[in-house]
Write a structure and sequence with these properties.
The chain is an alpha/beta fold. Helices cover 34% and strands 19% of the residues. The protein is built from six helices and eight strands. It is globular.
């Protein structure tokens, strides 16, 4: 099983109620399993955008950072709960690879928004990306992919 952020497969789970359609991933969707940590944690659609403050996803997991929505609501526990639900799926199905939405407070694997809701990004990873990586899952974003790499990832999984 290869996990993919649900929004990248055209599902309207993004905070705004939209999606982040990725044509390449959608063409290979039969090999991919959609997951959205935020909806797994029962956050509504639409919902106010959220950003990490005082650190990244690993810091959230350590308890030294938090996830706050644009209205000032602390949604940290929802993000941790969603990450843990995805981790349960990873363990149950022995997932080794996830392709997650770049820059997301849940799924970002290299960059996240800086917590000021101004569009600026900083180096760091989202809560789910951090938890999965901590548990041995190789995490990519849609920005890391091209067709050749995606085909190789699928081939590796199918050989196991």
């Amino acid at each position: 099983m290869i996990l993919v952020s649900s929004c990248l497969l055209g599902n309207k789970v993004k905070y705004s109620g939209g999606s982040n359609d990725n044509g390449l991933l959608m063409r290979y969707s039969r090999y991919l399993t959609a997951v959205c940590p935020e909806t797994a944690a029962n956050l509504p659609i639409p919902r106010p955008p959220a950003e990490l403050q005082h650190g990244d996803g690993m810091d959230v997991l350590k308890g030294t950072a938090k996830v706050v929505n644009k209205l000032g609501g602390d949604v940290t526990l929802h993000f941790i709960q969603g990450a843990n639900k995805v981790l349960d799926m990873v363990k149950k199905h022995r997932v080794k690879v996830a392709i997650l939405k770049a820059n997301s407070p849940s799924c970002g694997n290299e960059m996240i928004y800086d917590g000021n809701f101004n569009g600026n990004k900083i180096a760091g990873e989202g809560v789910t990306a951090a938890l999965l990586r901590q548990n041995g899952v190789r995490v990519f974003s849609e920005k890391d992919l091209n067709e050749d790499l995606l085909q190789r990832i699928i081939a590796m999984y199918r050989e196991e």
